[in-house]
């Protein structure tokens, strides 16, 4: 997915950054909606997860199990 608009970071990145392919897969979003949110709110996983929680959009079960596996390997 290529974006035509330049991405300007207005605030510091909090947490890890989502890629433009990972974010829509996690929440089951269409490419246009995901790109719009990604550009407006930036790639910060913390910010985008908070936004999606406020919109009451839950991550997919595949994404949740992948995150749990990632967290358990860190411990």
TrEMBL record:
Domain of life from the UniProt record: Bacteria
Protein name according to UniProt: Uncharacterized protein
